[in-house]
Amino acid sequence: MIEVRGLTKRFGRTTAVNDLSFDVRPGRVTGFLGPNGSGKSTSMRCMLALDRPDSGTVRFDGRAYDTIRDPLFEVGALLDAGYVHPGRNGRNHLRMIAASNGIGDKRVDEVLALVGLSDAAKRRVGTYSLGMRQRLGLASVLLGDPSVVILDEPANGLDPEGIRWIRDVLVHLASQGKTVLVSSHLLSEMAQMADDLVVIGLGRLIDTGTVADFVARNARHWVRVRSPHIAQIADQLRSGGATVTMLDDAGTGLTPGIDVIGVTAIQIGELAARSSAILHELSPQQGSLEDAFLEATAGAQEYRSTSPVDNSPPAPSGPAYATPPQQPPFAPPATNLTNGGQP
Amino acid sequence: MTHLLRSEWIKIRTVRVNYVLGIIAAAFPIVIIVLVALLNTDADSAAHDLPGAVTGTMLVTALLLGVVGALNLTSEYSHNTIRTTFAAVPQRTRVLLAKAAVSLAVTLVVAALIEAVTFALGAVILNARGGSVSPTGTEKAAMLGLVVLCGMLSLLGYGLGLIIRNSPATVAILILWPLLLESIVRAVLTAAGVDNPTPWLPYQSALQMAKPDLESGDPSRVRAGLFLGVIVIAFVVTGIFINERRDA
Question: What is the ipTM, given to two decimal places?
Answer without folding.
Answer: 0.85
